[in-house]
Amino acid sequence: MRALQRIVDPAGVFLSVEDRICYSFDATTFSCIPGVVLRPTTTEQVSGILSIAAEEGVWVVPRGAGTGFAGSSIPWEGSVALSFERMNRVLSFSPKDRRCVVQPGVVNGFLQRYVGQKDLFFPPDPSSLEVCTLGGNVAQSASGPRALRYGSTKDYVTSLDVVASDGSVWSVSETSGGYDLLSLLVGSEGTLGVITAIGLRLVPVPESWNTFMAYFKSLEQASVAVARLSSEGIIPTVLEVMDEVTLRCVEEYLNKESSPGVGAVLFVEVTGSETEVKVLSQRIELTFSKLGQIRYESACTESERERLWILRRSVSPALARVAPTKINEDVCVPRSRLPELVGAIDALARRDRLNIYTFGHIGDGNLHVNIMTDVRNKEEMERVDGCVESLLETTLSLGGTISGEHGIGVAKSKYLSREVGPVGMRLLRDIKNAFDPAGILNPGKILEPLPEARPEV
Amino acid sequence: MRALQRIVDPAGVFLSVEDRICYSFDATTFSCIPGVVLRPTTTEQVSGILSIAAEEGVWVVPRGAGTGFAGSSIPWEGSVALSFERMNRVLSFSPKDRRCVVQPGVVNGFLQRYVGQKDLFFPPDPSSLEVCTLGGNVAQSASGPRALRYGSTKDYVTSLDVVASDGSVWSVSETSGGYDLLSLLVGSEGTLGVITAIGLRLVPVPESWNTFMAYFKSLEQASVAVARLSSEGIIPTVLEVMDEVTLRCVEEYLNKESSPGVGAVLFVEVTGSETEVKVLSQRIELTFSKLGQIRYESACTESERERLWILRRSVSPALARVAPTKINEDVCVPRSRLPELVGAIDALARRDRLNIYTFGHIGDGNLHVNIMTDVRNKEEMERVDGCVESLLETTLSLGGTISGEHGIGVAKSKYLSREVGPVGMRLLRDIKNAFDPAGILNPGKILEPLPEARPEV
């Protein structure tokens, strides 16, 4: 497909296997080498690429930094991997209106610092924030620890420039009349349109904060504490958990002495005006004092806070050393059902004889259940599959969702119909067809199956 | 259609012209008498009605209290008017989780008092809150003065039970995987599905509040004040305006002495913790002291506050006495463009020699532009049409939207394509077709034209 390659400058076209391999994977176990990697620099180029792709029926798989946990950016053989790494500029920034417009390749952490200079901040903070891009954040409606108080990416997108599957360029904003197309595009994982500019709402940096770290005897006790805070009407900014094995793993990674008898740690952070933080802190301390936690620490200076946060932030690198393969499930249940979910995870680990590390955004009822394994061990991988299946069934039976914040992608598409039912599935498919009648945009993601016929690039 | 009538009990079927007339209109100038009025009491009945309607191709127009300003609930000749007045129960209420589930016929004001007993409140507060229903609020994604701080109805809907156009029943929640069908349904004006149960998020009643009323020499000066507050980063809970003619009209209605030299009034209300309110109030007073307002009052006791609010709340009844017909436009522009919009409204009133009363949620950039006229005066109505046309064009040219909070309905469907463009229109139509392939659900609303063929009930 010479025509496709001619649209971007030569530096924007990767044809060698070595180059293409770099765009073949994300943070899951899935991978597939694309036919070509195109790295456009303008909306017009994206439009040109999609016009040709639509005519030829070539598949186009948009991608940010490839940090996703659902395989949403995995390309297919012969497809175009459309990378936004060169569309990484802040297009406009109005501190007065607390708004900015960015290209999809801007890295989340870069934006945080950029707007921080004007005492503003962008709440969604996925753990991969120093790598992941805003295009990917919008495509997945990513969250992060602060989602508890601030909501996820979808709550901050005010407008999008979109290239439709036939190459036509259009815009949608939160004030656009008619059906809410903006909300439909956010979280659509690149299956409905390709985003080339993003309008974002920003918020003022909170005046004050306080961080707590509380040690409990078990994960179940910690989840009871979360339910108690919630029933007291206390909504912190952050409410994170890690279970005993995760804690041990992080302590070892950081060469820290292990805390004896601790089965789970809760991180609680409150932010707001000084008075708010004071009042909330007192209420949290009061709630803690009535519960069976072993001890707690609090941090209100930046350095103490960093000392506590290093534990939470080290989870991913620490876990990476445990086993060659990490199957990261992302289940979410109503907060009041957390103790049941935690009990079920424990039982599954025993039943299937698997090493499971659990941590995550427990304040949202959202736990990341990490099964540590090795894809080369076929017998164990079968037990892993059975465990995941049971975990998702349990989650749904508790009124939960199979994806708290990681999206559906290819990793969970086969479970989606159990969650949304037959009418929901039919509507999702019809919406996909309306936006992408030729089926060229990130096919086989969210909605199975992968279409069969496809020309190679 | 005997089969349709048999689904609900006899008290739920209105066949006489007298009864049907009561369901023929809303708060616009549109009206049309439906073929039958059905008043179901259960989701199953709604499902039964839609199954038959889908088979027979009969149009079904859902309606709440008929307080809408876009004609979204106007039935057509021969259609079923589906009224939810008997589905008016609170299905569940969990103060601990700050959630409730209601039937669509529950009146907004009733819910406010119901949850208020537990110190909770439901932020969306359209002026018609003592009459309008939550089903209608969700269908239109209604707002109200508090939207400035709290957002509109869409920000509070957590789940919906929906009857699809073929009669099948399904549910969708904010955590459902796949595309955001929940956001698509909220604000879809009954054209995509019929809502039979609504999950809502509630918030704690604010601890403290303070209300300001500031008198300015002109509406333009008041809109400059709004832009100033916004640029100072001050976000009140309420920021409402009324222009000189509206103020005079309300003063007369309330038998109050008229305030000399006043061209516009701003209502500003701040809520939050006591400290927050104190700090915000001081900042507002400081901003006011630098501006050219004539004077301002503030109210921090309930009775003083009521005394100020009575002016704002009397706008609708006061205006009703001015002229037989009120054309209520609902335009919204970015706050920084407000002075331009205000200037344009003034120029249009002079150009078309029309009485225009302007008030509304100026903090959101959302003004209600009321043209007072008489539909029987054909010559004047032509000038009104030209004025509306120009007003909407101006709004779009200022980067605004033709509907701030009233929806599109039949009133604005002919202008929608100018706002969303050809790709947007095609997608809106395709989405409508996906949800309602037979075109029986509230046809001709949002999207023109009204389909031609239709069997009568």
How would you describe the oligomerization state of the chains in this entry?
homodimer
- What fraction, in percent, of the residue positions of chain A are helical? 25-40%
Low-confidence segments of chain A, given as residue ranges, are none
Shape of chain A: globular
Enumerate the strands of the largest sheet of chain A in spatial order, edge to edge or round the barrel: 15-12-14-13-17-18-16
Number of strands of chain A: 18
Rounded radius of gyration of chain A (Å): 22 Å
The biggest sheet of chain A, with number of strands, parallel, antiparallel or mixed sense and barrel status, is: 7 strands, antiparallel
Give me the CATH architecture of the domain at 90-204 in chain A, please: 2-Layer Sandwich
**Terminal Cα span of chain A:** 5 Å
Calculate the mean pLDDT score of chain A and round it.
93
What does this structure look like?
2 copies of one chain form a homodimer. By secondary structure, the first copy, chain A, is α+β, with helices and mostly antiparallel strands. Among the domains of chain A are: 90-204, Uridine Diphospho-n-acetylenolpyruvylglucosamine Reductase, domain 3, CATH 3.30.465; 208-317, Alpha-Beta Plaits (2-Layer Sandwich), CATH 3.30.70; 324-397, Alpha-Beta Plaits. Chain A has helices at residues 2-7, 17-21, 43-56, 108-116, 134-140, 147-150, 181-185, 219-231, 244-253, 274-289, 302-313, 315-320, 338-351, 378-397, 413-435, and strands spanning 13-14, 36-38, 60-63, 80-83, 90-94, 99-102, 120-121, 157-163, 169-173, 194-201, 203-204, 208-216, 238-243, 264-272, 295-299, 325-332, 355-361, 366-373. In chain A, strands 15-12-14-13-17-18-16 form a 7-stranded antiparallel beta sheet, sandwiched between helices. The first copy, chain A, is globular, with a radius of gyration of 22 Å. Chains A and B meet through strand 9, helix 7, helix 10 and helix 15 of A and strand 9, helix 7, helix 10 and helix 15 of B.
